[in-house]
Amino acid sequence: MSSSAPTTEAAPARRGLRLPFWAQVLLGLALGLVLGFVARQGDVGWLATTLKTVGSTFVQLLQVVVVPLVLTAIIVSIANLRQVTNAARLAVQTLVWFAITALIAVVIGITIGLVTNPGSSATITTAGAEAPSRTGSWLDFLTSIVPANVLGLESSSSGLSFNVLQLVVLGIVIGAAALAVGEPAEPFLGVVRGALAVFQKITWWVIRLAPIGTAGLIGRAVAQYGWDLVAPLAVFTVDVYVGCAIVLFVVYPLLARAHGLSPRRFFAGAWPAIQFAFVSRSSVGTLPLTQRVVTKNLGVSEDYASFAVPIGATTKMDGCAAIYPALAAITVAQLFGVQLGITDYLLIAFVSVVGSAATAGITGAVVMLTLTLSTLGLPLEGVGLLLAIDPILDMMRTATNVAGQALVPTIVAKRNGLIDLDVYNGAKVSSIDEERTQPVPARV
CA 172 to CA 95: how far, in whole Å? Predict the structure, then answer.
């Protein structure tokens, strides 16, 4: 008996010594900055290679679980609408708020671009610029909606890859069919819910590696993308960060306040997902964490959140599909001496609001940018000029994306009485340190 007591008391003490997850990520970020600086200034090739390998491995691990996670999450989210009163109205409201916030974001992007003229101040030459190998067009966008096969597989230069937009469509169709079939589909949905729980758990394991992945990703960025690479497009880079910051820290808090929600509580609850999105540069990879903070920290109904968050993770991109393409289009036009008119700016807004799904599941915003440039008739070679600094921009863009993906379901839930305000306003904030597999209850 005497030997068991110390063991019981020591366990909490040992747990108390563990750094919280957010502190681990910040420590990884600081370590990455230092190692990246050493690799760049000291020209330490092996260190730069190691950082690149660690960072790319972390991203690849996230990409591995994206396909089954998206497909099962969409199927379950559609099937769960059976449990939600006025599901059609909620779905419409969610999509409308996605569009409203995207429109606000693109207006901010255009305004900043017109004020700062990022292309005119860029010290970069257009000679030798090449169009990217992967481009986007409205025809490609429309045809890509229709799955070529049941797995959403498509061929690429490196072999077979998954088209996440097709996976979203497949998930919606399968979920809607299961919803229509009703009770006979329950065994199938039980398997899908079990698979979703398994892939969520795997994703949580990958997320736990974020401190290491952060060190690799940030270290690689510092080692590879020094000031000499950013300097020619410094104004454009600052514009993207400022535009995202305005949306993130001004527009979103105002929308929260307008719906009677505390902006401070929103950021306290959503910050774990926003922080991880900044590091991982993947909205879909952040999906389990986003859904967790929306339900556990912000008090949104799980039935509604299980629909809104997965849909948002694949289509709601205020950073990648609104602010960035607006600023990039203005920059490319100025670099190539093309004068944009009011019609062009309206087209940018239209593409940003309607074409967000083109970026579904993609790290970076190349497809969305080429879609915007081709719609405006601007040279696609301009994309190649901006690609060098894209990873630096993508961190802030993805953080903005995920914040919006958490805010819109919270707003819609508040408008429809689907939010637990005691949870939203509560002092306790759930963190990844308390991670447990999200329960996916069987429906009857």
Answer: 15
DSSP, res 439: P
Which has the closest alpha carbon to 420: 296, 288, 269, 321? 296
pLDDT tens string 145-192: 666 666 555 555 444 455 666 777 888 889 989 988 988 999 999 999
Q: Which residues lie below 8 Å from residue 111, measured CB to CB, with a gap of 6+?
A: none
Residue of 184, 180, 154 whose CA lies nearest to 362 = 154
Enter the pTM of the model.
0.81
d(CA 164, CA 38): 38
Q: How far apart are the C-alpha atoms of 115 and 98, rounded to whole Å?
A: 26
Ordered by where they begin, the domains of the chain are 21-430 (1.10.3860.10)
Per residue in 347-378, pLDDT (tens digit) is 888 888 776 665 554 545 676 777 788 888 88
Are 396 and 244 spatial neighbours (Cβ–Cβ below 8 Å)? yes
| Intra-chain end-to-end CA distance of the chain, in Å | 48
Q: Which 8-state DSSP code applies to residue 131?
A: -
Structure tokens at 290: 């986003």
